Q: What sequence folds into this?
């Protein structure tokens, strides 16, 4: 039977079908070419330009696919407009992070070709994940993503924390992936297929011995994904790894891997409706409530900016999990719209914050004549008076923070509104209450950041001058400000994008 | 030849997995933690092969080969970090890696 399906899918792998996975193919081909390029000429500038070219081409190809009909590419992948949107988002983030990485790495004498290879591998992993339609491709994408992230997290060798955070991330992500794999193995052993849209054979499900393994399998699978999304009981690695990793890498971890994992989780839950039976739904509700509360409460006492963002990301994943819990068969388009909108809002806000944090960190490196030690820990006080020093950065931070806090006229508010309306339809009152309480708590750590921006600097204490900026950086900053403003005030633009 | 019931295979792999996980949690030496991770992955491999043979499909074995590849990649990264740790701390004790708190 397998032979027959394999032959069928092989025959259907025509040019049209290949076109649908063109962005992923471009990135994969780019990785191979980059390896040759490294052998030919080791130069930081060349490889950065090359990576940017590959990612931009992939982005164009991916944007072209936004209106595509769902297409199945072999058994492994399924491309639809949602996955194309998610991958475009990933590519935009990767391009921004590429710029940050270049700023961060160019001050080291050593050439860093491997870094950009790992970055492209990470993007490829995300691309496979968002299109995956089979547990095997899910697994491959997951591992491409996590192993290249481990490499990136431990990359900054001079840092005090690189070994520690790299090791923590390696051990925890390897255990998480083995949990997930064991879950897949159990599910497979009961259902006999690894495709997402498999129908559950009832006779086996009711065999009592195997039923236990089936439920255990789903539990393990969910916990593996929850680890990657840093949802509450699996969140312990998040602040440490965020803090220890170089800032561009942290930004990738906070955005690319979250987008990819969440999209695949939604795909999986939608395709395998049986996942949301009774106990599992209860489990997800507990996870969502726990991460909303824990993330927001623990963020309160953080002074390190990266740790603060880490805890706030835990809370945000909790909010987003509500959408998965209340999925219903009738309104799948609405579910996708909410998920993608919320993810875009979250990603735009996070990447803007990281853009500012990264340039705050590197300016110490390039500042004046002395190459000072790279400022490893960006703390809240570094933002003091930023608005007066560089208004554009200040504005960007304000927009990002307001959006994360969910204040009206920002993207974050619309995203929360989507979630709330979904939850109201499903009458999930407890989740709504927790969401509101959580957002209330979150104001207590978001607003002080904004107050900090406007504080006047102490006399002479702070030698930091105006931020030194490249042209690309300015373009990025202003475009993110515009994106934040336009999509916050006119959310229809994005939602039409998603719907089309 | 009598076939081994799938249930038994799954129990065996769960046991192996638990042993591996206990190793990851309890061991202090990072090298042994990496080895325990391998035990966990191979336990999953046993489950896949058992399930594949029960369903008479090649999928289980294909997954096992993918898992082997993953284990190799993971241990390569892990050993690189291990060498850096040995250089930096002159020890492989996992408890040294606790500088970040908060």
A:
């Amino acid at each position: 039977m397998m032979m027959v399906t394999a032959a069928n899918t092989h025959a259907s792998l025509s040019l049209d079908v290949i076109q649908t996975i063109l962005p992923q193919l471009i990135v994969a081909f780019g990785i191979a070419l980059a390896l040759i390029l490294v052998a030919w000429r080791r130069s930081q500038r060349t490889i950065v330009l090359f990576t940017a070219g590959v990612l931009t081409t992939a982005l164009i190809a991916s944007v072209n696919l936004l209106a595509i009909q769902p297409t199945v590419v072999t058994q492994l992948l399924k491309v639809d407009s949602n996955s194309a949107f998610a991958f475009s988002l990933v590519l935009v983030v990767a391009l921004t992070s590429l710029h940050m990485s270049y700023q961060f790495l160019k001050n080291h004498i050593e050439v860093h070709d491997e870094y950009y290879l790992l970055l492209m591998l990470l993007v490829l992993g995300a691309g496979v994940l968002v299109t995956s339609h089979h547990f095997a491709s899910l697994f491959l994408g997951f591992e491409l993503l996590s192993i290249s992230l481990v490499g990136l997290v431990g990359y900054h060798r001079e840092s005090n924390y690189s070994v520690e955070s790299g090791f923590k991330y390696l051990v925890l992500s390897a255990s998480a992936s083995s949990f997930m794999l064991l879950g897949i193995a159990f599910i497979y052993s009961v259902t006999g297929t690894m495709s997402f849209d498999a129908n559950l054979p009832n006779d086996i499900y009711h065999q009592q011995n195997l039923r236990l393994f089936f439920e255990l399998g789903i539990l393990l699978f969910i916990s593996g994904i929850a680890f990657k999304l840093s949802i509450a009981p699996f969140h312990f690695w998040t602040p440490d790894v965020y803090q220890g990793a170089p800032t561009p890498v942290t930004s990738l971890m906070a955005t690319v891997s979250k987008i990819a994992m969440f999209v695949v989780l939604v795909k999986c839950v939608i395709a395998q409706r049986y996942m949301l039976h009774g106990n599992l739904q209860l489990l997800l509700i507990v996870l969502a409530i726990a991460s909303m509360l824990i993330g927001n409460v623990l963020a309160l006492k953080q002074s390190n900016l990266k740790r603060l963002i880490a805890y706030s990301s835990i809370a945000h994943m909790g909010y987003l999990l509500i959408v998965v819990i209340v999925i219903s068969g009738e309104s799948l388009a609405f579910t996708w719209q909410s998920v993608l909108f919320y993810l875009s809002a979250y990603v735009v806000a996070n990447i803007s914050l990281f853009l500012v944090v990264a340039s705050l960190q590197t300016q110490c490196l390039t500042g004046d004549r002395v190459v000072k030690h790279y400022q490893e820990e960006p703390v809240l006080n570094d933002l003091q008076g930023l608005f007066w020093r560089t208004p554009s950065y200040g504005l960007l931070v304000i927009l990002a923070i307001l959006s994360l806090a969910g204040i009206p006229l920002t993207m974050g508010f619309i995203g929360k509104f989507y979630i709330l309306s979904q939850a109201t339809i499903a009458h999930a009152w407890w989740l709504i209450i927790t969401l509101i309480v959580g957002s209330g708590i979150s104001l207590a750590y978001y607003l002080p950041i904004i107050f900090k921006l406007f504080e006047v600097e102490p006399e002479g204490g702070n030698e930091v001058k105006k931020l030194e900026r490249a042209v690309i950086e300015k373009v990025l900053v202003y475009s993110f400000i515009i994106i934040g403003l336009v999509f916050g005030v006119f959310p229809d633009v994005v939602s039409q994008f998603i719907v089309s | 030849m009598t076939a081994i019931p799938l249930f038994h295979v799954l129990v065996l792999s769960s046991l192996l997995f638990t042993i591996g996980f206990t190793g990851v949690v309890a061991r202090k030496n990072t090298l042994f933690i990496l080895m325990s991770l391998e035990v966990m992955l191979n336990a999953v491999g046993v489950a896949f092969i058992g399930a594949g043979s029960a369903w008479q499909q090649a999928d289980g074995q294909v997954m096992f080969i993918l898992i082997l590849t993953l284990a190799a990649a993971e241990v390569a990264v892990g050993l690189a970090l291990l060498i850096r740790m040995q250089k930096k701390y002159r020890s492989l004790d996992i408890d040294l890696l606790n500088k970040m708190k908060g």
About this structure: Chain B touches chain A through 48 residues (CB under 8 Å). The helical segments of chain B are 6-26, 30-55, 59-89.
